[in-house]
Amino acid sequence: MVRGKIQMKRIENAASRQVTFSKRRTGLLKKAFELSILCDAEVAVIIFSQRGRLAEFSSHDMQSTIDRYRRQANGMHTPGIDTQQPKHESTDLAKRIELLQISQRKLLGQSLSTCSLEELQDIGNQLERSLSNIRIRKAQLCMERLEQLKAKERLLLEENAKLQEKSGARPWPQSSQQKEAPMSSKQSINNSEVRTELIIGLPEMPYS
Fold first, then answer.
1. Which of 59, 93, 120, 166 lies 20 to 30 Å from 109, alpha-carbon distance?
2. Distance separating alpha carbons of residues 112 and 123, to the nearest angstrom
3. Residues in CB range of 29: below 8 A, 6 or more apart
4. What does the alpha-carbon distance between residue 37 and residue 117 come to, in Å, rounded to a whole number?
5. Considering the entire predicted model, what is its pTM?
6. Which of UniProt's keywords are assigned here (predicted)?
7. 171: which residues sit within 8 A by CB, 6+ positions away?
8. One-character DSSP codes across 19-33
9. Please, what is the Cα angle at 206 between 201 and 208, to 5 degrees?
10. pLDDT for 53-93, tens place per residue?
């Protein structure tokens, strides 16, 4: 029985379209495998179904093959100058910045309405780890500051001791009570002299 020629147009029947897709996908991946083995070629095939399911084959690492294709394609458009690479890098950078901004808003408690329970749990765990790291770093800085103050105190005490040794001063200043003690002694001597002058000579007898 001779098969009729298949018209190259979309198959309207969903069941027939799915069956045809499965058969031809398998055949295409098989042909890609045979080509890589028989001809020692670097082959990569990526297929997305109508429902978004991925089917792929790569004789080497898929990402390295894609990167090689991009370099080769850019070299074909502009020999010697890769003008498309900065565009790809800027696009990737913009996507990464957008993802970081979304993550930052979620960490700040914003845009949480679309988050699932697992995402909220992950955000909570991340915040707890961040707080733990902050506390550890804060304690470390406090200990370093305390050690610096102790070292400064020891240095000041050593300088003070050297200055006192040079000037011949006492190690510790006198208290106010000690300063007032000599004055009290001098004052007591003066008082005793006054009393001595008062009792010199015979007392005067009253006249009868």
1. 93
2. 10
3. 45, 47, 55, 57
4. 47
5. 0.35
6. DNA-binding, Nucleus, Transcription, Transcription regulation
7. 161, 164
8. HHHHHHHHHHHHHHH
9. 145
10. 888 888 888 888 898 888 888 776 555 555 556 677 778 88
Alpha-carbon gap, residue 110 to 164, rounded angstroms: 64
Name the band, by pLDDT with cuts 50, 70 and 90, for residue 30: very high
Query: Which among 93, 113, 116, 94 has a CA at the least distance from the CA of 105?
Result: 113
CATH code, 14-75: 3.40.1810.10
Helix, strand, coil abundance in the chain, percent, nearest 5: 65, 5, 30
Nearest to 62 by CA among 79, 47, 78: 47
Contact between 25 and 48 (Cβ < 8 Å) = no
